[in-house]
Amino acid sequence: MSYDGMRTPGRNDECWCGSGKKYKKCHAAFDDRLERLWNEGEEVLPRRLYKTPEDIAGIKASAEVNCGILDYVGEHIQAGVSTMDINDWVNDYLAKHDAISADLNFEGYPYSVCTSINDVVCHGFPNKDDVLKDGDIINVDMSTIKNGYFSDSSRMYCIGDVDPEWKRLVDVCHDSVQAGLAAVKPWYHLGDVSAAVQKVCEDAGFSVVREYGGHGIGKEFHEDPFVGFVGEPGTGPIMTPGMCFTIEPMVNMGKHKIKTDKSNGWIVRTKDGKPSAQWEVQLVVTDDGYELLSW
Ligand code: MF3
Ligand code: CO
């Protein structure tokens, strides 16, 4: 096989995926199909990035903690809570569930979670002086490592009475993720997902951030492919069963341009100061669509 340069097992040998089945009864047809697509000039992912059933079980155990944290945040977040309180909740929950934050120390990131309020697009630092108030919208982006497996998802929380246009931003961003999910089909192109997300956001009059996107995930925090949320259908890598990635558009009420805080190199804000929303889900491509792993 040349699509990923890996050695292909003999037809009666054990499959490379770890199923214990004979290759000819397992991934032989899958590899032939990818090889054919690769020969036709399509972009395909290497075999090492497809998740085995064992990997998926590991990711699910990690995601159970990740989703548990976001549920906990949903039950306790309110006006008067500081974003450092959220960081403290996260640390307590992780410790009780034998897991660690994937964010902490990732490329030097100094906290266990990202908390991004209003015009903060992503990578907001928890801070005891950032106290939530009525009308705020906040993204809490959580990433967990448990037994070496990574999970990653984020949710928006509306604090008290939120301006209807801001609420619409939050809802449209959520709708765009649903539209992206609906476009996840094995053997189709990842660009179908990007285009579906972009259309929902732009039809609603909002804009999509270019510089950040989703990513493969599982045994590492960020694996191939990069998942942009502007793009053309029928372009990009082929989605194949076993591929695990995130859909996580950052959607701005105003222009798509962003700026990074020079004093810390992390906190990203909208250039025009208007609010931004983000929802993130993690999924695995299956034989007939996808399965959500973290949300
Ligand atoms: N959770 C983010 C993502 O969705 C990554 C945050 S990296 C950090 O990919 F270092 F800022 F935590
Ligand atoms: Co992510």
Describe the protein's architecture and organization.
The structure is a single chain. Strands 1, 2, 4 and 5 form a four-stranded antiparallel β-sheet that branches. It is globular and about 65 Å long. It has helices at residues 28-39, 53-76, 83-96, 164-182, 191-203, and strands at residues 100-101, 114-117, 120-122, 137-146, 149-158, 207-208, 214-216, 223-227, 244-247, 250-252, 258-260, 268-270, 276-278, 281-286, 289-294. The longest helix is centred in the N-terminal third of the chain and has 24 residues, at 53-76. The relative contact order is 0.15. It starts with 27 loop residues before the first helix and ends with a strand. Helix 2 crosses helix 3 (83-96) and helix 4 (164-182) runs antiparallel to helix 5 (191-203). The mean pLDDT is 98. 28% of the residues lie in helices and 23% in strands. The structure holds 2-amino-4-trifluoromethylsulfanyl-butyric acid and cobalt (II) ion (CO). 2-amino-4-trifluoromethylsulfanyl-butyric acid is lined by residues 103, 106-107, 109, 114, 123, 141, 143, 152, 248, 280.
Distance from N terminus to C terminus (CA atoms, Å) equals 35 Å
Oligomer description: single chain
Q: H/E element string?
A: HHHEEEEEHHEEEEEEEEEE
Report the bound ligands by name, code or SMILES. 2-amino-4-trifluoromethylsulfanyl-butyric acid, cobalt (II) ion
The number of distinct helices, counting runs of at least 4 residues, comes to: 5
Task: Please give the radius of gyration in angstroms.
Answer: 20 Å
Mean of residue pLDDT values: 98
Q: What are the low-pLDDT stretches, counting only 5+ consecutive residues below 50? A: none
Helix content: 25-40%
